[in-house]
Design goal:
- With about 375 residues, the protein is α/β, with parallel strands linked by helices.
- It folds into 2 domains: about 210 residues, Spore Coat Polysaccharide Biosynthesis Protein SpsA, Chain A; about 160 residues, 60s Ribosomal Protein L30, Chain: A, CATH 3.30.1330.
- The protein contains 12 helices and 19 strands.
- The protein is elongated, with a radius of gyration of 25 Å.
- The two termini are about 30 Å apart.
């Protein structure tokens, strides 16, 4: 029996969908755990804790699975699952797992179930390989002895009666996992070797780590998108290009901050994803985007790549303007774009050119930008 927790919103990941629904290797993060448990011969079913939106996206559960609503906190979510298991006796083995750890493997499940033969509770752990120090106000302090420390993962295994007793006694206690509640009862918790593939999806950059650990990037395709944008120059407005403000006599006119560089990059990435354009996602008719900082648009496009289980290999931006000179600001623009997209600086190219005083840019009536984005996306 499994209790699979998928009720959080994953706000720290910064995705536009709950992180359990982000795409990893062609399927939702949550589906990885569901499939792994459903395929294990010793797992007869489970309780999925998820809200209505997640359930609608998943559509079907494996045979023997039911669902229950999440609570405001993790502890309440597990309690809701326990309330749905009133027909199971206290000796039933139960695994509690966080859907944000999609790399469930049969070997860890087997170790946990074997450990439950002699213990009331068991958890997978990994050794701490990094040097640890105390820290205060960004100053490193004393080194912490790591020999007695371990990193705790899920799934965690319990006899159902033990888990029920731990939650019944935890009315005023809080814990980040169920093993802590069991230990509050004075019950020993056995440890078994964990696995690096059980890495937790917390931040957007964890998608790339999981893709490598789970081998989801081995079958990929290259996708290339192009973007173009132009805005009129007007007096008495700040000039934003490439995510930085450049001092100039004129700025760019537009519904948002009119950053032609970031707008063209956003469209290039969305084009590589075949996911519409910037106007589809941020329509100028919507007043909430009036004066908006364009880094929000580019960040959104980058998150769409991660949600698809992909990565940004390279972006190339060309600014077309007679003035101001872009050269002195080129490195700052590259650094800002790399920061927004959370990619290395050497994957960002920024160039500038003029039209030799021809056309609207040559007459200094406006500034244009064109961009190319190269992505790696998993084959579905």
């Amino acid at each position: 029996m499994v209790i699979l927790l998928a009720g959080g919103n994953g706000s720290r990941a910064g995705f536009t969908v709950p992180k359990q629904l982000a795409m990893l290797g062609g399927k939702e993060v949550l589906r990885w755990s569901l499939d792994a448990f459903a395929a294990h011969p010793a797992i007869g079913g489970g309780v999925l804790i998820a809200n209505d939106d997640v359930m609608a996206a998943i559509e079907t559960l494996p045979k023997g699975w039911i669902s229950a609503s999440p609570g405001a906190e993790r502890q309440q979510s597990v309690a809701n699952a326990l309330a749905a298991l009133t027909d199971r006796d206290d000796a039933t083995p139960v695994l509690v797992h966080d859907a944000a750890r999609p790399g469930v493997i049969a070997e860890v499940i087997d170790r946990l179930l074997v450990a439950l033969g002699d213990a009331a509770a068991a958890i997978p752990t990994l050794p701490v390989s990094d040097t640890l120090v105390e820290q205060a106000d960004s100053v490193a302090g004393n080194v912490v002895d790591r020999s007695a420390l371990a990193r705790v993962q899920t799934p965690q295994a319990f006899r159902l009666g033990t888990l029920r007793a731990a939650h019944a006694a935890a009315i005023d206690a809080t814990a980040t996992d169920d093993a802590q509640l069991v230990r509050h009862l004075g019950i020993a918790v056995t440890t078994v070797p964990g696995d690096a593939r059980l890495h937790k999806l917390t931040y957007a950059e964890d998608m790339a780590i999981l893709s490598e650990l789970l081998g989801t990037m081995t079958m990929t395709r290259t996708a290339i998108g192009m973007g173009y944008d132009v805005h009129r120059l007007v007096a008495d407005k700040p000039l934003w290009i490439g995510g930085i403000e450049i001092k100039h006599s004129h700025g760019l006119e537009g519904h948002s901050d009119a950053d032609v560089g970031l707008h063209s990059l956003t469209d290039a990435i969305l084009g590589a994803l075949a996911d519409g354009d910037i106007g589809d996602h941020f329509p100028p008719s919507d007043p909430q985007w009036r004066g908006a900082a364009s880094h929000r648009f580019l960040s959104f496009a980058g998150e769409r790549v991660l949600a698809r289980g992909g990565r940004i290999d390279h972006v190339d931006l060309t600014i077309i303007a007679e003035a101001p000179k872009i050269g002195p600001h080129r490195l700052a623009i590259r650094a800002r774009i790399a920061e927004i997209l959370a990619i290395p600086l050497d994957r960002v190219s920024v160039k500038a050119t003029t039209t030799e005083r021809l056309g609207f840019t040559g007459r200094r009536e406006g500034i244009a930008a064109q961009a190319v984005a190269t992505l790696q996306l998993p084959e579905n």
